[in-house]
TrEMBL record:
Protein name in UniProt: 16S rRNA (Cytosine967-C5)-methyltransferase
Domain SAM-dependent MTase RsmB/NOP-type: start-end pairs: 219-500
The organism of origin for this protein: Eoetvoesiella caeni
Bias (Low complexity): 19-34
Catalytic site positions: 436
Taxonomic placement: Bacteria, Pseudomonadati, Pseudomonadota, Betaproteobacteria, Burkholderiales
Domain of life: Bacteria
Length: 520
């Protein structure tokens, strides 16, 4: 009963001073964040893959770390007397009581709960968070297991979550005899014999939809796993190789920094490093961003001096990379309807050293500033609000928070945003539509419907365009479709659409349909 987080620390660590790390870098999890991530408005909360963690998942769990192996043999799990097992079960049960109401995203609930329990240290928080997320990942199966036997189901869920965090002996110290027997029994159940929906803990509607995708089993398994943490360098400030060298000679070495395979700016870290306490984060040299999200920004293909709109900029994950790729020249509008999200982007913009970003809170419909930019932008990115189902590795609660009705609302919203944003694209300019979903109705079908209504746009081959910046990435095209089972990233989708120049439009439509944006 150990987790993949049982990584051994390197035996010798260079001094913090020599590496440029402050001793704080090994410190506690980051502080609170806004609570407007409530997504009962049918909008996906921003992917936490693009945000530093503040959910207590910053340190490996106590009672699970192994001391260094001797003579090539793994050392036994350290089973020190552990008076906290009973308390920890109650803590996890208490958090689950709030999370399972599905009113707020799980990481927001955790942050809130940790603020209300300030005496817990970073390892305590890590254990609680790991157990809660394990329950969310396996909820359907655990609920079935919890029904076997006596006692409150919520406590049994907490015990199951902690069974993947603590060793058996440590956990047993918090269990009575009946609970120990029940746990032994359910952990012996042959999971492989269960239906996929139960085994992988998916609601039926989602299992059905995912089963229609290629290699569905591999995708489902990958979405149900835990993810590493990707960061990226700010190309305006530092080269990736230089940053890798710094990380490898400092305390970050124990998080195994490696270059990401496809993005030229990415660095992958294992475990849950407290990145946002590191000096290179505070001075804007690195940002947290999943490799897939970095690739989407690359796909926009921005150039120096252009006018670019990031139409759904949120907390600025992609805006930051776009701005750096424009070398802080031209003008990059960061639009969003959420003032709170844009407010969270502002400190990131400030750290980055970029001076070309113009954040603008826009109205949901009929915004005058958007109208003024009709037909003017060289590039428009629509990183649309979506189900977020490509990010289940990091946000497993989304499979329980989404349902077919909320999905349909999102599909309608995406179509509306795509239509509005497309009006800003200049003739010959490009519109990039992206989601972090793996569902065709939010992706391919959405783009096909848009193209059918907007003949002045043509679909370009995203797989070829992305190779300009990510040469190792070979995709089928014409879409950009990243998957955790194939690429080790979150699930992302993107399409690149080019707006015809007036002459081309005239000849292709032979005087037929007109551009529908009012700018023609
Ligand atoms: C997927 S998130 C964006 C994430 C962001 N691009 C990043 O990389 O961090 C989608 C965003 O769309 C915004 N949004 C929702 N409706 C919108 C609309 N009608 N116009 C513009 N933005 C909208 C949401 O507030 C949310 O921040």
């Amino acid at each position: 009963m150990t987790t993949e987080k049982n990584r051994r620390a390197p035996s010798r660590r260079p001094s913090a001073k020599a590496s440029g790390f402050s001793s704080r870098s090994e410190g506690r999890s980051p502080g609170p964040r806004g609570t407007d991530s409530r997504s009962s408005d049918g909008r996906r909360p921003e992917s936490s893959s693009d945000r530093p963690r503040d959910t207590g998942r910053g340190e490996p769990a106590r009672g699970t770390r192994r001391p260094p192996a001797r003579d090539g043999q793994a050392a036994p799990v350290r089973d020190r007397p552990y008076v906290m097992a009973a308390a920890r079960i109650e803590q996890v049960r208490s958090v689950l009581g709030e999370v399972l109401q599905w009113e707020y995203p799980a990481d927001a609930v955790l942050s809130h709960w940790f603020r209300a329990h300030p005496k817990l240290g970073s390892r305590d928080r890590g254990e609680v968070a790991d157990a809660v997320f394990d329950v969310l990942r396996n909820l359907r199966r655990y609920r079935q297991f919890a029904e076997i036997g006596m006692g409150p189901a919520a406590r049994r869920l907490a015990i199951l979550g902690l069974s993947n965090v603590f060793s058996k002996d440590v956990l047993n110290q918090g269990l009575d005899e009946a609970e120990q027997g029940w746990l032994e029994h359910v952990l012996r159940i042959n999971v492989a014999a269960l239906s996929r929906a139960v085994r992988a803990s998916l609601p039926d509607w989602l299992d059905e939809r995912l089963s229609q995708l290629d290699d569905a089993d591999a995708l489902v398994d990958a979405l149900n796993s835990t993810a590493p943490l990707d960061i990226r360098v700010n190309p305006l400030k530092v080269e990736r190789d230089a940053m890798l060298a710094t990380l490898r000679t400092g305390p970050a070495l124990r998080f195994d920094p490696e270059p990401t395979p496809y993005s030229p700016w990415g660095i992958r870290l294992q475990g849950r490093p407290p990145v946002n306490r590191w000096p290179m984060f505070e001075n804007g040299e690195i940002e947290v961003q999943d490799e897939g999200s970095q690739i989407l920004a690359a796909l926009v293909g921005v150039k120096r001096g252009e006018m670019v709109i990031d139409y759904c900029a949120g907390a600025g994950g992609k805006t930051l990379l776009l701005g750096a790729l424009m070398r802080s020249t031209g003008r990059l509008y960061a639009f969003d309807v959420s003032a709170a999200r844009l407010a969270r982007a502002k400190p990131r913009f400030a750290r980055s050293g970029l001076s070309n970003i113009v954040p603008v809170v826009i109205a949901d419909d009929n915004d005058q500033r958007v109208k003024r930019l009709r037909g003017k932008a060289h590039r428009v990115l629509v990183d649309a609000p979506c189900s977020g189902l490509g990010t289940l590795r990091r946000n497993p609660d989304l499979k329980w928070r989404q349902h077919p009705e909320s999905l349909q609302e999102l599909v309608d919203l995406q179509a509306r945003i795509l239509r509005q944003a497309s009006r800003c694209v200049a003739p010959g300019g490009r519109l990039v539509y992206a989601t972090c979903s793996v569902l065709p109705e939010e992706n391919e079908r959405q783009v096909e419907a848009f193209l059918a209504e907007n003949p002045e746009f043509t679909l370009l081959d995203a797989s070829k365009i992305v190779q300009d910046r990510c040469e190792n990435l070979t995709l089928e095209g014409p879409w950009l479709a990243m998957r955790p089972d194939r690429h080790g990233t979150d699930g992302f989708f993107a399409a690149v659409l080019e707006r015809a120049k007036p002459a081309a439009l005239k000849s292709s439509t032979e005087g037929g349909s007109q551009a529908q944006d009012g700018s023609s």
